Amino acid sequence: MGDPDSLSGWADLAYSNRHMVFEHCSEAIALLDPYGDRFGDLNVAACKLLGYSRQELLDWPVSRLFGHQLPDLIVFSQAVMEKGRGWTDELSCNCKSGERLQLEISATLLGVKGRQQMILVLREQSSERYQRDQAHTERTMRGGLIEWRNILNLFQESERDNQLLLSAVGDGIYSIDSAGLATFVNPAGARMLGWAPADMIGKNIHRIHHHSHADGSHYPVEDCPIYKAVHDGVVHEGRQEVFWRRDGSSFPVEFTSTPVIDDGRIAGAVVVFRDITERRTTENQLQTALEELKVLKRRLEEQNAYLQEEIHIEHNFREIVGQSEAILKIIKQIDVVAPTDASVLINGESGTGKELIARAIHQASRRSSEPLIRVNCAAIPAELFESEFFGHIRGAFTGAVRDRVGRFELADGGTLFLDEIGEIPLELQSKLLRVLQEGQFERVGEERTRRVDVRIVAATNRDLRGEVQARRFREDLYFRLNVFPIQSPALRERPMDIAPLAAHFLRQIGQRLNMSGRRLRNSDIERLQRYTWPGNIRELQNVVERALITSQGAELNFDLPDELRPAPAQAQSTLLTEEQMRGLERQNMLMALQMAKGKLFGKGGAAELLGVKPTTLASRLKRLDIEAG
After folding, report:
1. Which fold is adopted by the domain 4-155?
2. 80-86: long-range contacts, CB 8 A cutoff, minimum separation 24
3. pTM for this structure?
4. Which residues pair with 89 in a beta bridge?
5. Which of 251, 409, 508, 625 is the most core-located residue (most Cβ within 10 A)?
6. CA 498: distance to chain centroid?
7. Other residues' Cβ atoms within 10 Å of the Cβ of residue 78
8. Which residue has the higher pLDDT, 120 or 10?
9. Which helix (H) or strand (E) holds 392?
10. Can 4-155 and 174-281 be said to share one CATH topology?
11. pLDDT digits (tens, 9 = 90+) for 78-106
């Protein structure tokens, strides 16, 4: 029998720093023999995680724990054997409680005693981390000197194995004593920090790599979670912090500081840390991608809302109907200009089908697969023009509760149809000109410059050249829009198209109202051709629909206002000046107001009698200086 004091010294020698780090590391670490289907060794955390004693786990085949996923375990093991390391979160093991524990496993290939072994770092995937107590069991065997030497040899062999294990783990691991001085650093940790392990041993670890926050401000040691574990004996975690390298650079980390309890007192702490730079980069890229997806989703929602709105707008007709010389000329012009990206200015009275011409140009262009966005400039309040065109950001003005995409962004890649372009306020025309020239704009309240690729088709019932001369419309904007002018003729100028148009509306509206089978009589056509149609095609459509609704049997009852002047354009022998035309238009407008008894909109209102939209009526009254009421 040997001296007890000397034997105790031998045992203390066996419990070296590295053995202590391996045994009390907060991470569950296991040594796996992939050929023998056995664990070579496991630390305390691994035993606790799996719920079995070390001896049970060493005696059992590994497949007993992973038998339900044995093929997946074999595939993972083979991948690690080929690449030298691996990671998976798709394996689960059978715990002693009978439950299956979902694991995250990091593996590293290592040669131990001439055999290929795998170092496994096991982590429970549960978001709730419970505190893992560390325990030492001191063996106090009394016996002869030979028995104690056998124990010593066993500890020394474990020491060598533990050193190999800790050296092979990819995460950084170091231990500190109760004073905060480093007692052990594994190679991975030293490599990440840019130090040699020998240069860190005995140093205050906080001052070496944790001295400052991410912004460079001082990080007091008393606030450090790593050192709190030494004082309060509780496991501490860090997730939004950085470690500093020897060269002064930093990297984001997540770490766990676990206290080491020896004889009822806190002997120090074991710290496991991981460089999460790649994960942080991936998260940032994912966040950026999500933001871009939100923008695209918002834009698609805006486009969808707009298109749904457009579905409910009643178009004059779905195709250009007519065989008059004026219509054939327009069709030729569309064929010429549609394949280009040239701006088009459509001139004509309200209700002549300017929007139909714009749609035909878009459908025949290379942009036909992209949206055609329509903006009725006469219906937008002056204070909302900029927001409507360019959009705004949240908080840009009262009522801006969220970001809004403007019509230019909605039309990106497609065509923007600016109806009633002459109604745009003069102060906004310069901003519109900039977008047309440079393809750039800013949302209201935002400094970021955005780019768009939009083709412009504009329409107006005004004499824009006269508006330029009166300085109510910018000359440079006019020339920018008037690259390819198209004149949309009034219905009275092409009486030969009235019959086919009326027949077209009769079929279209009859199907919608389930009133098919009605026919036009020659007397109906002659009467329709005698009328002047101040509301043009839109008025003809309304008259046909009203005739269908009020018809009795197969006969149609066309309710036309009294004749104002001879209808056929070819019968007009006297050329009228612009002033005379405005006078006739004013007279016609006053008569409509008189017949409607001053009522502008709704059933029996002047807008319905004229066959025009309420916004168009309001625009004409303003232009002709007529006070309603």
Report:
1. Beta-Lactamase (3.30.450)
2. 80/34, 80/107, 80/108, 80/109, 80/118, 81/34, 81/109, 81/116, 81/118, 84/108, 84/109, 85/109, 85/170
3. 0.45
4. none
5. 409
6. 50
7. 12
8. 120
9. strand 391-392
10. yes
11. 888 888 888 888 888 888 877 788 888 88
Of 406-410, 534-538, 608-612, least confident by mean pLDDT is 608-612
- Of residues 217, 258, 373, 245, the one with CA closest to residue 304: 373
- pLDDT tier for residue 301 given thresholds of 50, 70 and 90: low
Domain boundaries, the chain: 4-155, 174-281, 313-487, 496-623
- Tokens 């219906």 -> residue: 379
For residue 573, what are its two tokens?
A: 């022998």
313-487 to CATH, choices 3.40.50.300, 3.10.350.10, 3.40.630.30, 1.10.357.10: 3.40.50.300
As a residue count, the chain comes to 629
Q: Per residue in 435-487, pLDDT tens? A: 888 888 888 888 888 899 999 999 999 999 999 998 999 999 999 999 999 99
| Helices and strands: H and E segment counts in the chain | 25, 19
CATH for the 174-281 domain, from 3.30.450.20, 2.60.210.10, 3.20.20.10, 2.60.120.620: 3.30.450.20
Judging by beta carbons within 10 Å of its beta carbon (0-12, 13-18, 19+), is residue 103 exposed, middle or buried? buried
> Is residue 72 exposed (0-12), middle (13-18) or buried (19+ Cβ within 10 Å)?
middle
Q: How many CB atoms lie within 10 A of CB 482?
A: 15
CA 27/CA 122 separation, integer angstroms: 7
**Locus of tokens 């009203």:** 546
- Bridge-partner residues for 315, per DSSP? none
Please say whether the beta carbons of 200 and 208 come within 8 A.
yes
The conformation of residue 552, written as its DSSP 8-state character, comes to B
SS3 assignment, position 25: coil
**Pairing between strand 484-487 and 344-347?**
parallel
